[in-house]
Amino acid sequence: MVRLRSDFWVSAYLRRCSLEGLDAALRKRGSAEAGAIYVKVDHLDGTASLYGPAPQLFLDDSGERLFAPVLQGSTPLDVEERMARELRFDPDLWLVEVDDRQGRHFLDLAPGD
Fold first, then answer.
1. How far is CA 86 from CA 10, 37, 74, 91, in A?
2. 8-44 in b/e burial notation, b at 16+ Cβ within 10 A?
3. Does an H or E element contain 52, and which?
4. Is 67 exposed, middle or buried (0-12, 13-18, 19+ CB in 10 A)?
5. 6-99 under CATH 3.40.1530.20, yes or no
6. What is d(CA 66, CA 54) in angstroms, rounded to the nearest whole number?
7. Domains of the chain: which residue ranges?
């Protein structure tokens, strides 16, 4: 099955967050066709979480994007430093930021996450 382009996925994700009443913003636009997508969740209490693409072993033929926690319960500065490293490695990635005290993100997580 063909995977949904990154730009379409991010657009739909931002719309979903908006419909659910979450503040979400695109912080970094990546490659439209296949850029890796990262989602930072700011818990608005001095902590943040970061989700990124799940390891390849969890991907199946459905074409769905699965995510895995990269950092959880970290400081927003820790998340920013991690993203700076990721950007040096992959300048075509996408970064979406969600603000939610409950930590909601609406991502499909890989099994076990």
1. 18, 11, 16, 8
2. ebbeebbeebeeeebebeeebebeeeebbbbbbbbbe
3. strand 48-53
4. buried
5. yes
6. 5
7. 6-99
**pLDDT number for residue 112:** 74
Q: How many CB atoms lie within 10 A of CB 72?
A: 15
Average pLDDT on 33-39 reads 93
pLDDT-above-70 percentage for the chain: 90
0.90 exceeded by pTM: yes
Q: What is the pLDDT of residues 44-81, one digit of tens each?
A: 999 999 999 998 755 555 667 899 999 999 999 999 99
Burial class (CB in 10 A: 0-12, 13-18, 19+), 5: middle
